[in-house]
Specification:
Helix content is 53%, strand content 5%. With 694 residues, the protein is mainly α. It has three domains: 171 residues; 129 residues, Orthogonal Bundle (Fumarate Reductase Iron-sulfur Protein, Chain B, domain 2); 280 residues, no CATH class. It has a five-stranded parallel β-sheet. Helix 11 crosses helix 14 and helix 20 packs across helix 28.
């Protein structure tokens, strides 16, 4: 009943005691079903191994909450989708808080002392305005995303699996879950306005002009000739429809895609920003170095599986999938999730279905994830960077690869490379005594950092030391550094492969051996910083060697060149003037955030830079990372490097394809030849252009 003095409304308008009792009974049942499903998922996570992520959550609480509140991860590279979800999220939050306010006022405060009730007067008016406005935002956001899903049908939302034949699975369950989730929310929002409009049309309290949508809807009912009796009947039916839909949503939430509302919030709070950059060591005392069954998973990794919303951002970002390889990061996570639900509980009601097959037991590799799927990964981190909910695909893939390496299930060419690395410390199978042979073409001798104190210890890397084409780049770097008066030296034959890709292949024991040998060599040297031209070495030296005792900073040569040009130690005598595009190496850009230094160098030497569509943190992988450069890629439909060169040539007037990674030089020069683009674009290393300019 409306109070003329203090604006308010009845919670159970025109509902008798039996109806109210039935509502509370249904509410209790919905909450019980919700709690049962939520506990099943919590129990599943509790079965995972321990992980220090809760301490991490405390350290990054403000950052995580800011990311959630601002939707920064969702707006990244897809502003319209992020904005629509932002409207849905905050609309849902405000509407949920509005429901809690009613519950607190009616079911708690009213029973303690009716005089304390606050859901009335000015509070009620502002409450009505806020909920009506945010309800509109909620519905508009939903409409935009529903139109995107079923109208535009972007490739990210195509659930076709690249690793299985179309007749071996069905994802109709996913499609139905998507539809049920979206339509439930839409109908809950619409019926909420219908309840409000019918109530206002029947009672016409003047203060309800604050309910902007409800008041206009009531005006529409009046214009349509709806009588007060009909408005009351409409209110009764819409009230119950709204109540049943809302309670049904509560009950369905932990068994559906809607569970991401809760799981993703938790996952973003415990996400490690260094995931992939710094890999965890194998569990001490474990039966296997890698993951063989779900018993090896941490609770965070089990949480990752449930966090996936099937948005497909990782799916479209993955270079392996684009090349036609049998890997989709999304499908890897979904397959593991369904296996975890089968084995550990926390069931989703609508899932992927497959024909009956032999039960593979608890084993993950083979029955759940195929070896070729794991080996297709380039560990470029595009999936982790693109994921809006903090899923960490790459570390999980590496854990599974460790089991493959332990079992000897790998490409023969990869096995040869690992044997070379074990015996010689390099993947070329060359004697360590020839590691510095490339320096013989220089008119000066580079210092031996083992004997002479240097400012920069140049960690050269395998490709920069042994590959004939990249040796030219190494000599160019040396000449530029000499010209700038930089005090630098190298380790000569004492240097070993830094182990970045060895570790990401899954050969943890070999990584430890190489790292130990390098640390022993570094311990004998006196230097202020490590310089490297290899982003792969840069990543592991910077992010993983500190745990082994390395305390000096690590610098990429593009950063040093930018500083030398900026300070005037290098002066430009002949501006480049060429039209160039620049490729961000995965391990330099996406892994370590070095985007501006190479671009600053190009700008200072007078090059005219045109960016590719996929650049900076959205750069497309060359296909060499994660040990893929040592594996056979003949089965790929189109190698990632060829795909990238096509993108560069498509810019139209670009003369040079500029790189800042030794592996990129070899990958992209080969791609130019095999794709028939010779004469249209030339691959140049950043240092080569700098040397010509100075």
């Amino acid at each position: 009943m409306t109070d003329a003095i203090a604006p308010a409304r009845e919670v159970f308008r025109n509902l008798g005691t039996p109806a109210v009792a039935l509502f509370y009974l249904l509410g209790a049942l919905a909450i019980a079903i919700f709690c049962w499903g939520a506990w099943a998922r919590i129990r599943k996570y509790r079965r995972g191994r321990r992980s220090p992520r809760l301490r991490l959550a405390g350290a990054r609480l403000l950052h995580g909450l800011t990311a959630i509140a601002s939707h920064s991860t969702l707006r990244k590279r897809n502003a319209s989708t992020g904005l629509a979800h932002f409207a849905i999220f905050w609309g849902f939050v405000v509407l949920f808080i509005g429901t809690l306010i009613i519950m607190i006022d009616y079911d708690m405060v009213r029973l303690v002392d009716p005089a304390w009730r606050f859901w009335r007067g000015a509070f009620y008016l502002w409450y009505s305005l806020a909920l009506d406005v945010m309800g509109v935002a909620f519905l508009v956001g939903l409409a935009v995303l529903m139109a995107r899903r079923w109208g535009a049908r972007p490739a990210a939302l195509d659930y076709t699996r690249p690793d299985r034949a179309a007749d071996s699975y069905s994802r109709r369950g996913y499609l139905r879950d998507d539809a049920l989730f979206a339509w439930l929310l839409l109908l809950i929002g619409l019926t909420g306005y219908l309840v409000e409009g019918a109530r206002i049309a029947a009672d016409r309290p003047p203060f309800e002009t604050w309910s902007l949508v409800g008041w206009q809807l009531a005006n529409a009912f009046d214009a349509a000739g709806l009588s007060r009796r009909a408005a009351n009947a409409l209110h009764w039916w819409s009230w119950w429809g709204h109540a049943v839909l809302a309670l049904g949503f509560v009950a369905y939430l932990p068994y559906s895609k809607a569970v991401h509302i809760l799981v993703d919030l938790a996952n973003l709070l415990v996400h490690d920003e260094a995931a992939g950059r710094r890999l965890p060591a194998p569990v001490e005392g474990a039966a296997s170095a890698g993951y063989a069954t779900l018993a090896d998973f941490t609770w965070k990794e089990l949480l990752d599986l449930d966090a996936c919303t099937k948005c497909g951002r990782c799916h479209v970002a993955c270079p392996a999938r684009a090349a036609g390889a049998p890997l989709s990061p999304r499908d890897l996570i979904l397959g593991l999730r369904e296996h975890a639900e089968d084995r550990l509980g926390g069931l989703s009601l609508l899932r992927e279905t497959r024909p009956a097959a032999n039960d593979g037991g608890d084993a993950l590799i083979g029955p759940v994830v195929r070896p070729e799927t794991l080996w297709a990964c380039t560990t470029c981190l595009a999936c982790v960077e693109a994921c809006p909910v903090g899923i960490e695909h790459v570390p999980l893939i590496v854990q599974l690869r460790r089991k493959l390496v332990e079992d000897g299930t790998m490409d023969p060419t990869l096995q040869d490379a690992l044997q070379h690395l074990d015996r010689y410390g390099n993947s070329f199978g060359q004697s360590e005594r020839t590691r510095a042979k490339w320096t013989q073409g220089l008119p000066f001798r580079i210092k031996d950092a083992r004997r002479d104190e240097v400012e920069y210890l140049w960690f050269v890397g395998d490709y920069a030391s042994y590959n004939p084409r990249v040796q030219e780049v190494s000599r160019a770097v040396a000449r530029v550094l000499r010209r700038a008066g930089v005090d630098f030296g190298i380790l000569y034959e004492a240097e070993r492969n830094a182990g970045n890709d060895v570790r990401r292949v899954g050969e943890e024991g070999l990584f430890e051996k190489l790292a130990e040998q390098n640390m022993k060599a570094l311990a004998k040297c006196r230097f202020k910083a490590i310089l490297t031209t290899d982003p792969h070495s840069y990543n592991t030296l910077k992010n993983e060697y500190p745990a082994l005792g390395l305390s000096q900073p690590v610098v990429h040569y593009s950063e040093l060149l930018a500083d030398l040009l900026r300070s005037g130690r290098l002066t430009v005598a002949k501006p480049a003037g060429a039209a160039v595009t620049y490729h961000d190496p995965c391990y330099l850009g996406r892994y370590n955030g070095v985007f501006d230094a190479p671009r600053e160098v190009l700008g200072r030497i007078g090059a005219r830079l045109t960016e590719m569509g996929r650049c900076r943190d959205n750069s497309f992988c060359c296909g060499a990372g994660g040990g893929r450069i040592w594996m056979d890629d003949s089965g790929q439909e189109e190698r990632p490097s060829v795909n990238r060169i096509r993108e560069a040539v498509g810019l139209g007037s670009v003369q040079y394809f500029v790189v800042a990674c030794p592996k990129d030089v070899t990958m992209y020069e080969d791609a130019v030849k095999t794709s028939g683009q010779e004469g249209r674009i030339v691959v140049r290393d950043l240092a080569e252009l700098v040397e010509e300019a100075v």
